[in-house]
Specification:
homodimer; DNA-binding; elongated
DNA sequence: CCCATTTGAGACACTCGTGTCTCTCCTCTA
DNA sequence: TAGAGGAGAGACACGAGTGTCTCAAATGGG
């Protein structure tokens, strides 16, 4: 039977999210295949990580597409975006810790493109008067990444319910912890 | 001359924050000492990581102390806490990615104690009517960790100014991105 | 100034993960 | 049913990183 490459990648991501230094043998076992087969699919650990990076990037971009982040109110766009990003959060948490991906010449420019779109979303919100202007769009988008990772990790640890993923992130990011008095 | 153990730890943290898989040789070079001396100070990589964990924990606890998080308004306490936590943010970012620290039996219970104090702070804010109650204290404290890491990383990358560290985190965490209408 | 201590540099063996190969077994298809 | 293709299991050598040791040089105190 043919190996489901995508499935292998998802299983690998599931393991690597919580154990970023996992052995190729452990990855193979997590995916339910042998190390030999894993190596037939991905020529080495580096290729596996690159494939995971590509998968994560693709998922993020498709989430951005599906969320129509250029339409309607920026705050609603952020909510839709986070909801669409949820399935990719675990993978994102792993990639976030693979800081070696983001330094050096071979850096994937896809992240820069994605980042530009996120920044543009927050900037749009500012220009529309929805968002405050004393928090830079760059910081807001970076904070969103951080909250996605925190949320994924916290849910994995069982400290918060997975159904609260989207609301936890969006409510905190948009509304903050302080109670509204209006 | 005697090796400044604390200095070595800080240099190591500075390197490991941005390159978590750095070699012991690289760590030694970053600290300006030889690999032999590094090994004399810390018996193996594991011991080094443990020492970094201890240092990070100590710094966090001292920040919690200095911030007097049980006094005054909770929101102000959070601001003081973040300000005190700033020097430890880089180290925290490294420890955050060392997820192996937080699983298994040898887990340092100091983190649980620290976490309890953070959670208590947010709960106090809720009970005082300062914070909204639809975001759990657990999530708020976890989100704070995530924002600390994001901020440290973003500053390291030069995407935001280091002087905005505290305000970026506290304003987002407490006030959120949406502009107040009050 | 001399001696004790400590550091740096290098060599060494060892471990662990990796990449590759072979061989066998299974499954699907003609 | 026979054959082809793919997967699993295991063996193997290789490289990187590690921990340890030795020896020479430097430092600092008495």
């Amino acid at each position: 039977m043919a190996v489901d490459r995508e499935r292998v990648l998802r299983d690998a991501a599931g393991l690597l999210m919580r154990k970023s230094g996992a052995t190729m043998d452990e990855v193979a076992r997590a995916a339910g295949i042998s190390r030999a087969t894993l190596n037939r699919q991905f020529a080495g650990r580096d290729a596996l990580v690159r494939a995971l990076e590509e998968l994560g990037l693709t998922e993020c971009e498709s989430a951005v597409e599906k969320a129509d982040i250029d339409d309607g109110r920026a705050a609603d766009a952020v909510r839709r975006l986070v909801r669409e990003l949820e399935p990719a959060a675990g993978l994102l948490a792993f990639l976030y810790s693979e800081n070696q991906l983001f330094e050096g010449d071979g850096q994937n420019e896809g992240w820069a493109r994605l980042d530009a779109r996120m920044v543009a979303l927050f900037r749009r919100g500012q220009e529309a008067g929805e968002f405050r202007i004393d928090l830079s769009p760059v910081w807001l988008s970076e904070a969103l990444y951080g909250l996605l990772v925190s949320a994924a990790w916290t849910i994995y640890e069982g400290r918060v319910a997975s159904r609260d993923f989207t609301s936890n992130i969006t409510e905190l990011l948009l509304g903050g912890a302080v109670r509204r008095t209006e």
